Amino acid sequence: MRVFGFVEISPRAKLSIIIVLALVFLTSGMYYVQAYHRLKPVTSVQTDKKLLALTFDISWGNKMPGPVMDILAKEKVKATFFISGPWCKQYPELAQRLKSDGHEIGSHGYRHINLSTLSPLEIKEELNKASANIKEVTEVEPRLLRTPNGDYNDAVITTARQNQYEVIQWSVDSLDWMNPGVANISERVLKKAHPGAIVLLHASDTCQQTDKALPIIIKKLKEEGYQLVTVSELFKAGTKVE
Length: 242
Known about the structure:
Layout (H helix, E strand, L loop, with lengths): L1 E2 L3 E2 L2 H27 L6 E3 L4 E8 L6 H11 L4 E4 L1 H6 L1 H9 L3 E4 L12 H19 L5 E2 L8 H9 L3 E2 L4 E2 L8 H11 L4 E6 L7 H14 L3 E3 L1 H5 L3 E3 L1
Parallel strand pairs: 4-5, 4-10, 4-11, 5-6, 7-8, 9-10
Antiparallel strand pairs: 1-2, 3-12
């Protein structure tokens, strides 16, 4: 056999090439199917109403949560906080204030590790331990989950849903955990804000600029006509987007 008229290929080599091409085709198709059908968390809500949810993750520290809650109280804004089990137990007075201030409380898991590295049984144990801590301290049984590091795979989503959790990601990432500067945090949120958005912010002590950027964000969003609500309130306004 000749290819392009000058390279001779034996029948065995020809068969090998056909097999390799077939495997590449099948593998590519398999990856496409997996990607297309991969289970996904909720990132936003499709709605024409100018509603937006501010969400905060907390895993450690007791210096930033208070100032963040003070700002939200002053601005009369209710937000959704995803708190870890150990943090809740370590700072019960802060977790209880979240509830008394009227904020929505979700779970941020137990250990701050990638759940996708665990088995379904281990994932369930992480969720149960966090939920037990949160319920003991706040008397709230969380039904919303933001996974540590935003990490997930099909097993994480499936296990969470089997345990009556809705996994929540975001459509607007403030990147406040990088401490890029107050102006960068606020500008990033304001430029990417949209009706039905879920905004990712943090209230852990490692995020040292969030409390300074938050008043700017809230003020500008209100000026643009946005109503700031909790994630569950946002769900009532439209269709969940995954």
